[in-house]
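Dear colleagues,

As part of the handover before I leave the project, I'm documenting each prediction I ran so the next person doesn't have to rerun anything. This entry is a single chain, and its sequence is reproduced below.
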Amino acid sequence: MQPTDPILNPTIFLASFEWREPVTTLTDLLVAIVCVIGFIKFASFKGEKSGSFIFFKYYFLSFGIGMICAAWLGHGLQAYIGAEFKNIGWACSITGSLFLSLGSLQHLAVCIKRGHVQILKVLFSLHYILFMVLVLVPAFSAFIYAQLGSSIALIGFVLPMHLYSYIKTKARGSLIIICAILYALLPGFVFNSQISLHRWFNYNDISHVLISFFMVIMIFGTSKLSMSSSRN
């Protein structure tokens, strides 16, 4: 059965292959490409690294894998697979948010007490377990939980840590990440408000393009914090 929502991209056929939401698939892949570029930038770096480096590297990898899954399992191949496969991409995005939170905490660790670091790690772990259960257990699984989990991590965890970091250290990387998170409110607003230009460029597609720019900014910010050649 083809999707009936009038705002979704029309299905196209390549011979006998049925491709659902093609533009949404491609814009998901655009975000994935940016994430893979970020991962390659980190993976190929040979200079001095900070303790946050490994977490930021796997943030881009996890998010990139999640967007590839979203592109095909969540949209392009929905004629052939069940909707339950969407939760693979959601789980990857929540895992990416955990890596970003841990990397940010690792950067902040020099500014706060060790006991506070341990408390935050427990908080991040509980958040991760809760939202992984919500997206993976069929009785609960829904995109809203993936969106909520990522939003809490960004706005509730990562943003306050980098605000504190910038106040304490004036690290330019933290300032860039703060700007990136504030900018991320824009694609979130577009998606939740379902602001669309056309069926061929709907709210999914617009928000994906905007998220790709968010990831570019995050590459610059995390690089500044974790690579010696990029720091002030």
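Helices lie at 22-43, 53-76, 86-108, 114-136, 143-169, 172-183, 185-193, 203-226. The chain has eight helices and two strands.

All the best with the project,
I.
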